[in-house]
Amino acid sequence: MDKLPPKQLVKNIYQELLPRLQIESVNPCDPIKVSYLPQPWRLLGKGNYAVVVYHPDYPDYVVKIYAPGRTGFEEEVEVYHRLGYHPAFSECLYAKDGFLVLKRLYGTTLYDCMHFGLLIPKQVIKDIDEALDYARSRGLHPHDVHGRNVMMYQGRGLVVDISDFLHQEPCSKWNNLKKAYYWLYLPVFYPLRLRVPYFLLDIVRKCYRLGTYVKNFCCQLSLRLTNIKYLNKYLKR
């Protein structure tokens, strides 16, 4: 973190934002609830563990604040430290007391691109693939990369959320999204410029989450049954 954000911005965070901000993570699987955001701060986005806001006087910086009781702050700081600089990722300029000041990435999430019918060129997918490979070369493990965590800006791909890149367990979200892009989006949505309502996108997202849960449950159940089978054989000897 050789670069530093404006001192006045950091001062405003401590004096205006943090003392009055009211956020709560009700369910770790759902976005954070924002009860109150002091003026003139603007909400840019919210995830399951943190919210992202910005000050209109400093539009090129965003502040990511973790909800009380939610972990991940230290891990995200470590991820940014390992990443260094790459054009497809943001940069961490300040990190302390449960919040990070990041360089703002401009663009539209692929999730929103589907809603607005914006064309997503192949270069966007290639850029994100290259960025994830770069992260792996830095000892990281791209995780939880989905339509809301990647963006398109001027025809290029960006990765917005890297907070889970220390998780080593396999994650197939990005590969599944790529399959949907090449098998469904390019032949159907791209030429017709179809717009998908948010409620349908949310249904797909929840069905995918349910399907993943069922798949993992079945795999664990199968493993346990196999272990019981071998244990019974061993006890019968």
Automatic annotation (TrEMBL):
* Protein keywords: Kinase, Serine/threonine-protein kinase, Transferase
Q: List the InterPro entries hit by this protein, alphabetically.
A: Kinase-like_dom_sf, Meiotic_Drive_Suppr_Kinase
Gene Ontology molecular function terms on file: protein serine/threonine kinase activity
SUPFAM superfamilies (alphabetical): Protein kinase-like (PK-like)
Show the PANTHER family listed in the entry: SERINE/THREONINE-PROTEIN KINASE YRZF-RELATED, SERINE_THREONINE-PROTEIN KINASE YRZF-RELATED
Protein name listed in UniProt: Serine/threonine protein kinase
In its UniProt entry, the species of origin is given as Nostoc cf. edaphicum LEGE 07299
Lineage runs: Bacteria, Bacillati, Cyanobacteriota, Cyanophyceae, Nostocales
